[in-house]
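user: Please supply your own:

assistant:
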Amino acid sequence: MRIVSLIASSTEIVWALGLGSSMVGRSHECDYPEAVLSLPVCTSPKFNVDGRSYMIDERVRAILQESLSVYRVDSTLLNSLHPTHIITQSQCEVCAVSLKDVEAAACELMDSKPQIISLEPNSLADIYADIERIGGALDLMPEAQKLSGRIKSEFELISKKSQSLKSRPRVALIEWIDPLMAAGNWMPELLELAGAESLLGQAAKHSSVMLWKDLLDADPDFIIVSPCGFNMQSTLADMPLLTEKMGWHELRAVKAGQVYIADGNQYFNRPGPRILESLQILSEILHPQAFHFGHEGKAWKKFSAN
């Protein structure tokens, strides 16, 4: 078996299923576990991924307006790796290499006639299903069911404890800073499991652009900023795009010191096994008196403008 995973989350799933040694190629975004960094990189972005959030958004929109793919797939390299399985996705053309990119590369070369496994996670149920879809394709269904079952069990334990707490904070989870976007897909579900009320974003729906007025009107108890693809350092650099807006300092969360930044690249926006850690992070932020998993400082921290 020779596996090429072109999504960071599926790479983590393959590794969690015990088939890391069968991986022969990865995407430019696959970086966990660390051992995958030695594998050949089969994709690259067509735009400069550095810079402020509004700059990245403009570059991506310019490419999409020309009906072009956002990423390149190195079909020559793929062919040389002789993969038996290629894992891709059809959920978002901006987040990762898409199914059509892989199909085009497969049509161009692909002497090995690999099986293409396409994932489309929009909810927690989809994440569980994708784990089992990969497991089924790789003849590891029992292991996949055990993995998804373990995640569900841990979710239930956290949820049960969260629901027993008196506080139910109203939370705005921000997935992109400029333009401002509310986190959707599985994020509102995670907030619900963490004993919170999700504001603005819709479960099982793509993250949506919102007006600044929407955030002001919602006036959340907590604001968590976790841009897709951004680590905490990149997020911190973009925070002035929020803090300098009129009305920021009047928000309930800001006045109460309940604004946080979190690693959206490694956790919240990566629908793989570490979605469990994402729930743990939310639980630590929202209920520090009840939960401590050791993620503070590494995966999230309280934001201070000073």
